[in-house]
Amino acid sequence: MPKTTGASATILRPEPKILPGAWTVKVIASIASGVRSQDLVLASLIRTLIKSEKFSVRMNFEYNPLGDEFRERLEAFFGRRDHFIEVNPGRVVMPKAFADIGDSIRDLPIRSNDVWLMSFPRAGSTWAQEMVWLLGNNLDYEAARNQLQQVRTPLLELSAIFSDDRSVEDTVTRHEKIDSVQCVQQMAGRRFIKSHLPWQLHPREMDNVRPKIIYVVRNPKDLCVSYYYYCQLIHRSEGTFEECCDIFLADQAPIGPMWAHALAFWKRRNQGNILFLKYEDMKRNLPSVIRQCAEFLEFGRALTDEEVQTMCDHLQFERMQRNPAVNLEPLMKDSPIIQNDAGVKFIRKGEIGDWKNHMDSALSARFDSWIRDHFEGSGLEFDYE
């Protein structure tokens, strides 16, 4: 796979992969571009063949360097040089190591009985994943306490996120010399998988196989606050909260843009295999959300009031903070990069409206404008207090 390093060059541009029996992309492109105006029927036929199953084109991702100003802004905030790239489609900022696993993610076989928990980072995915895993494993609290959530429900793109910290990857992959994508592929039985990737960077089979998908969204103001502290803890960021907000509102945050991330799942919310949850609904009425998820996951029977209360107790934020199976502390103690002394917990506050403790009226107004620009008319609305 060719690599270049120029500021305007594409550093990685994988060759398209073609299904057996198809023409090559280059041949099709040359024919299509070379037809004369009187050959429009031929051009139409070629386009039809490209779209057909027999001649389907399996395009993977394109990886580009960031522009100088963009790169410098992220380097200043994260305190890390030459760490990020742009992944297309979608102009998604990702660690450079994503180029090593991106095509493997795209080609990952999907199983119909998979259960995927997806969200933008810091939307409540750890909390929701604990609920989902328990509902999918017959309320086995003993197993949940004795095995790290990061092992029970591996993060698909973990090898890219922790590319310079093999200790985390070793824990999740049980010290096998494999990456996080291979770890997911080799899981036996029903797989519970977590991912923060936007829709277009997920495995290509996702739309056809349609496994169970639970997506969690959180209001952008609280999410950005939590994202700032997450970056301090996990990525050793050095920038201020205001700089984090600038990056977030400019759609330059890693994994972002957040609005595109959420709306891609929102428009699919009526598919039978997708359950779209709001973090704020979980905070306000967790018993109702638990029952909703149980029905979605086909638990097999109605949960008793006692079972629901037991799960609510297990999922209390104070207990989650103290629970080493979910609070990331076992991974932090051996990690050379996670700032265990940063004064920030992986499971922090979880409050609705914490943004008021961090944003003045001017910054809040900027978020309001950004939210209107991107979500108005979509039907997706947020609660902020």
TrEMBL record:
Domain Sulfotransferase stretches: 113-378
GO molecular function, one term: sulfotransferase activity
Keywords, alphabetical: Transferase
InterPro entries, per database record: P-loop_NTPase (IPR027417), Sulfotransferase_dom (IPR000863)
Transmembrane segments: none
Similarity remark: Belongs to the sulfotransferase 1 family.
Protein name as annotated: Sulfotransferase domain-containing protein
Organism: Anopheles quadriannulatus (Mosquito)
Lineage summary: Eukaryota, Metazoa, Ecdysozoa, Arthropoda, Hexapoda
